[in-house]
Amino acid sequence: MKDKVLQDMDFFHQATLRICSSLEIETVSARCLEYLKKFIPIDGLFMSFIDSGTSAIRISALVSDIPLNQPKSPIPLTPEALVRARTIKERVNIYRCPLESPVTTCIWRVLGTMDVSCMVIHLRFNKEPIGYVELFAKGYDRFTEEHARLLGLLHDPFAIAIANNIQYREVIRLKDLLAYDNRYLRQELHRVSTAEIIGATGGLQNVMEAVAQVAPLTSQVLLLGETGVGKEIIANAIHHSSPRRDGPFVKINCGAIPDGLIDSELFGHEKGAFTGALAQKYGRFERAHGGTIFLDEVGDLPAPAQVRLLRVLQEKEIERVGGTRPVKVDVRVIAATNRNLEALVRECRFREDLWFRLNVFPILIPPLRERKTDIPDLVHHFIVRKARELNLRVSPVLAPGAMERLMAYDWPGNVRELENILERALIRMRTAGPNEPLKFDEFPAGKVGGETGRPAPESEGSQVLLDEVTRHHILAVLEAAGGRVQGKNGAAARLGINPNTLRNRMRKLGIPFGRRR
């Protein structure tokens, strides 16, 4: 009796080693067949499970010493066979021939022979049916109860192997799907970065020449320019023209992250590093490994984060919050700012050594008022895109003199302001009527700068206060409206806001209206 137990234990151990030797179920089947032949007279085996989507049997692996058909698709079951497959309670069943069971009858008709004996182990995982392992031999009535007992010993290893294989196939499917989505998104990003740079041969020609010079290298790039000039688009162009184009392109707005979270966002954290850190998190630099990271508004980084960013640039390594060892990263840094970093350095608000590290290859992107020849192309581009987004069925047209008004304006908000103005005009056109041309009456033709237009550009690095820009813009619209705030052609209608809202804003900005005006 003791010898029998030892023999069973050795059989179970050796068979389990082969069953759990690989995630590839075909490899497992071949190894099991070779070993089980020593104890059971078999000519082959296959592993299968019920496909929940089609209510059919799907054979996941088949190895055989006798010639059989190889099914390429799930094997459909008759209603009787499906009921039998879902209600059978025995762990191991012996069939002297396939015709003894409706399930084996369906399977062996597809495999191409009925001259076999079958022995099936029904697998359950977490008390739920998960699949089958079927051993077969040529000829009728080849298996005994002893053979069934030995096969029953292997229920748990086979169930685990089938469950792991199902999960493994799902992981592979999701991985392939993710790779496909990744390739598609990269193609879309590349298309956007190369096709939507309006003015590449016009006002941005010098910028694109600088992009062509620095893109093939790994040097840091610093993009300078006012808000709304398109610094992110230029960063995209640099990345997708570089050898790192197949790597990730990670963007982060340094001014939009609270000071207490910026280290975790940039460099990641370990599990338990602070309250709420329930799992390890990779920071933006680790996600950008092998690619490019775009640090927008880098002048807004707090002093402690500047120190850690300097270390990344110098040592090419980061340290997660709560971590004890450095992590090497291979990242190209493209920084952007609309602030005067030299002035911030003089005021001790930005580290001088970090400034030198970032300012390897500065590129100044000119504001829209300095490249007004690009405005017609930008207008056409935004009208086409916004009309598609707004589901406009007609092709919008400009009213006579509209383009001249747009060309005469100084655009303190640059390309972003132009885009918003065009979208606003298209929205108004939806309510005014599809044949109504785009007028842009809020821009007084020939009156820019000075008293009613945008203030003259200040010296490089200085900033115009938002309230001052708003004040000048409202004054310009108010003059075009003849001083009227309310009414069909009043300033509020031209600006697309409520008259009371406009009056409140004018009070705050010190702009007189009504009898005071």
Explain what this protein looks like in three dimensions.
- The longest helix has 41 residues, at 155-195.
- Helix content is 44%, strand content 14%.
- The strands form 3 sheets. Strands 3-2-1-6-5-4 form a 6-stranded antiparallel sheet, sandwiched between helices.
- By secondary structure, the protein is of the alpha/beta class.
- It has helices at residues 2-19, 25-36, 79-87, 102-111, 145-152, 155-195, 205-214, 231-240, 262-267, 284-287, 303-315, 341-346, 352-358, 375-389, 402-408, 414-432, 466-480, 491-495, 499-509; strands at residues 44-51, 56-64, 75-76, 92-95, 116-125, 128-138, 221-224, 249-253, 292-296, 317-318, 327-328, 332-337, 361-364.
- The chain folds into 3 domains: 2-169, Beta-Lactamase; 196-366, 3-Layer(aba) Sandwich (Rossmann fold); 369-509, Helicase, Ruva Protein, domain 3 (Orthogonal Bundle).
- Helix 1 (2-19) runs antiparallel to helix 2 (25-36) and helix 3 packs across helix 4.
- The relative contact order is 0.06.
- Residues 445-464 have low confidence and may be disordered.
CATH topology of the largest domain: Rossmann fold
Residue share in β-strands: 5-15%
Query: Which architecture of the largest domain does the CATH hierarchy give at level 2?
Result: 3-Layer(aba) Sandwich
Low-confidence stretches: 445-464
Rounded mean pLDDT is 84
The percent of residues in helical segments reads: 40-55%
Number of helices: 19
Tally the beta strands.
13
Any idea how many domains? 3
Distance between the termini: 112 Å
Globular, elongated, flat, extended or rod-shaped: what is the shape?
elongated
